[in-house]
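Predict the 3D structure for this chain.
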Amino acid sequence: MGIAENRRWLRRAGEARLEYGADYNPEQWPREVWPDDVRAMRAAGVTIVSVGIFSWARLQPGPEQWDFAWLDEVLDLLHGGGILADLATATASPPPWLTTAYPEILLVDQHGNTVWPGGRQYWRPTSPVFREHALRLVRELATRYAGHPALAAWHVGNEFGAHNCHDYSEDAATTFRHWLRHRYGTLTVLNRAWGTDFWSQRYTDWGQIIPPRQAAAQINPACLLDFQRFSDYALREHYRAERAVLRKLTPAIPVTTNFMVMPGVKRMDYAAWAGEVDFVANDHYVTPGPQARDELSFSANLTGNLAGGQPWFLMEHSTSAVNWQPVNLAKQPGELARDSLTHVAHGADAVCFFQWRQSRAGAEKYHSAMLPHAGEQSAVFRAVTDLGKRLAALHEVAGTARVPADVAILFDWESWWVAEQDSHPTDRLRYHQEALDWYSALLDLGVRADVVPVGSNWERHRLVIAPILHVVPDYLADRLAAFVDAGGHLVTTYFSGIVDQNDHVWLGGYPGALRELLGIRIEEFGPLPDGVSVALDDDTTGTLWTDHVEVTDPATEILAGYRTGDQAGRAAITRRAVGSGSAAYVSTRLAPAGLATLLPRLLEPAGVASELPPELRGRVELAVRDGHRFLINRTGEPVDLGVDGLLPANGVAVIPR
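Done. Predicted structure below.
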């Protein structure tokens, strides 16, 4: 897995600044509106816009027809207004003429049904026909705009995998077989990795292998895992193909695409993507709920660490309501700025929205924008303009790196994929939620933590928390053991260390690959039914899961035991001392409140303490970039910062270090 090293940022002259803007879709509006757009952008403090994301049908009306005049005019207007362009390759959705002429580029779902045009992103990642036409468009764009002064970056596709990650077509089947041959070399090795002697699935010819289409019973879980890996790879290969054209024709212009690091979007392994972009970019939308603010911080934190601690680009978020949730609530006063500045606190050097002008027609016409239906005389546009001024005043933050914390929470996409497959002890397990709970509990204690990909350099942290680290190959087990042996402190949870990279169970008892490191052994899982909880003797409550824990090492102490339930009288939380290091295990879901009770006992041996004064712990979040401390209000009330003044509800204070 590659973590981005921020090889290149946006090309620009003069003093460093935080970029500000939105997706801009002028093709949705008459050209008479465009000059007024640029005027209003300048008034709002906009410095950059993403252009042309869904404009293929306008740019190429037919197989041999091209229309760049409108885009020429738009880019010239933007440049005249001092606004940079993050120019899209426009390949996110093919035009109707292309899908009509070549229906073989259309996605096929798990049931064998064609995914027809009418929405967006309905193309096959492995279609050679689509690739040919897409790269032709990219070459035309790059050739025409290589020297345009507004061009600051290339935006390849859009939200790869949002709708077309899993394709089950014959193109996908052919490419999947090639990928498997490269991965395993021989059918003997593949059969062993997939455990195909179960249910008589042993393959004797590569042509017998198909994608995991609809089947009569549960599909081979190792096949599902490899198909997920392959699907992620196939989209990355398409991204690389477009990138290769752009780098050849415009070598000075950085290339990126927008990730979707946010809850529920688990299809793409962004740790593998991070090394493929010239700077990391992310789209994030707030998920309503009691941990909404913490989740925004969690995702921004993870994005910042995907970027290797260096600046990154918030490509999309919302000024107010979205349009795709069951109930779409408008943001309250101050939330637009708070959400934006939280991303900046975790390393964003650009803050952009979807979109600039709210659409009159189409599926997203009720999605908020910088310039809403109500126009410039609106609370949203006033908030947008105020934020533009504030970002301009924070120019000294631009270019600074995130300051690492003492605590790391490991995040592993493969564990997310596998832990939530079917035919497991429970289908109620939620990997992302468990990781977020630990993050919320640390925020409640006023302790900074980094959310880091499992393949990153997490050994520099004093305490590493690995929630539901389900997939643990040999090399990762060795890394974790070496970390503890060197004096590091590890915490992991239920359903961790259970399988290897092929989703094969580690034998000898659970938690498998981590059993000796933790000094415990578990013979059988104890998932809990809905509505059932257990009491621990530290006055916390567990749900979802319990384990029948047997302590196997004298160096393992019991930090808390079960007071009720089937495991009453047995260990619930353990900690094994290893020299100056330790390895702890939490066998049930404690939720943020219970974790906040437990964490001080895990933080103290690691020498980790809050950097905030006691009166601010839990009430504000602290994030640190070189030279600046960000204090983010986590409450609905003003918070007295002492000499640093009063932090209003939804407020963010930026204080020089």
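DSSP finds 17 helices and 25 strands in the chain.
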